[in-house]
Amino acid sequence: MGVADQYAVEVNNLNFRYQENSGVNFNGLNLKIPKGERFGLFGPNGAGKTTLMSLMTGLLTAQSGDVSLLGQSIPGKGKQVNKLFGFVPQDFSFYQELTPAENLEFFGAWSGLSKIQTRQRTDELLQILGLADVRNKQVQQFSGGMKRRVNLAIGVIHQPKVLFLDEPTVGVDVQTRHAIINYLLQLNAEGTTLVYTSHQLSEAEDLCNDIALFDQGTIIARGDLQSLMNDHQQESLEGLFLNLTGKNFRD
Ligand SMILES: Nc1ncnc2c1ncn2[C@@H]1O[C@H](COP(=O)(O)OP(=O)(O)OP(=O)(O)O)[C@@H](O)[C@H]1O
User: In this predicted model, what pLDDT tens digit does every residue of 171-216 receive, in sequence order?
Assistant: First the structure.
C-alpha cells in the first residue's frame, strides 16, 4: 500500500466560502481519514458539516486546496472516481413516485452496474433493510423510517469503498436507527470506510471509532471517544460538546 492511498479521504489546505460570502468559512482546512475508519463529524447547526461533505464528494468545489479519495484527486477523474464512493444525503435523493425496486434499478444503472448485478443487489438490500414486502409500493406512501432506509440502499447499491452519510438517522424511530447502525457496522466490518455526520451524540458511541468535533469550519477536537473525554476531563460527549462549542443557539 502506497502512502497516498492509505487514506480513504485526504483534505489538504482547503479554502472555501459561499459566493454570497455568507455562512461558513473554511481557512486552510486539513483532514485525513485512514481507510477502514468509522469517522463521525459532530457539530452544532450551521457548523459546516454538510458543506464539508459536499466538498469531500465533489458537489461543491473549493476556491483552493484539494480533496483525494483513496489517493485519487477529485474532481477531475469523473466516473472512475465517483464509483469509489457512495453518498447518502440528508435530503431524500429518490423518486417518490417510483417503488424502492424501481429506484434501485435506476440508481444501479446510473452507477454502472449491469442489469443482473442491479437485480441481485436490489433483492439483497431490500431484504437486509426490511423493505422486501413493500418493494412494489410507491415510496411516497412510506413512513419516514422506510424512506431513510431507501435513501441508504441507493447510496450503497454499487458497494462503494468509502461511504459518506449526512445525518442518515434523522427523524427515525429506535427500530430503524438500530437497523441502520447495525448495517453500517456490517459494511465497515466488510471493509467500507464510513464518513458520517449526526446530531445524535449517542451514535458516536454506537458507531464511531474516530470522532471530530467541528465548529465554524474548523476541527476543534479529534480522537476516539475515550481519549476525547479524558483529554478534556469530561464524562460524556454531550458535556464535551457543550464545553467546546458553548451553549448559545447557532441558528
Ligand atoms: N448554498 C449556500 N449559500 C450560502 N450559504 C450557505 C449555503 N448552504 C449553507 N450555507 C450556510 O453555511 C453555513 C453552514 O451550513 P451547513 O449546512 O454546512 O451546516 P451544518 O453543520 O451541516 O448544519 P446542520 O447541522 O444544521 O445541518 C450555514 O450558516 C448556512 O446558512
Answer: 899 999 999 999 999 999 999 999 999 988 888 889 999 999 999 9
State in Å: Cα 18 to ligand 1 middle.
9
The pLDDT score that the predictor gives to residue 81 is 55
Express each pLDDT in 105-115 by its tens digit.
Answer: 999 998 889 99
Instruction: For cell 467500507, name the residue.
Output: 192
Q: Work out the average pLDDT over 216-228.
A: 93
Verify whether ligand 1 is closer than 6 Å to residue 46 (CB atom).
Answer: yes
All three cell numbers of 3: 502512502
List the domain range (segments joined by +) for residue 241.
38-58+83-245
Q: Could you tell me if residue 11 is inside a domain?
A: no
Residue 22 lies in a domain: no
Give the span between the Cα atoms of 38 and 207, in whole angstroms.
7
Domain membership of residue 207 (yes or no) is: yes
Q: Has residue 166 been placed in a domain?
A: yes
Domains in the chain, number? 1
From the CB of 23, is ligand 1 less than 6 Å away?
A: yes
Pocket residue to mutate for ligand 1, from 49, 51, 53, most atoms within 8 A of Cβ: 51
Alpha-carbon span 184 to 172, nearest angstrom: 15
- CATH code of the domain covering residue 230: 3.40.50.300
Q: Which pLDDT score is estimated for 184? A: 97
Q: Which residues contact 99 (CB under 8 A, 6 or more apart)?
A: 134, 135, 136, 137, 138, 139
Which atom from ligand 1 is nearest to the alpha carbon of 20? 4
- 114 Cα to the center of ligand 1, angstroms: 37
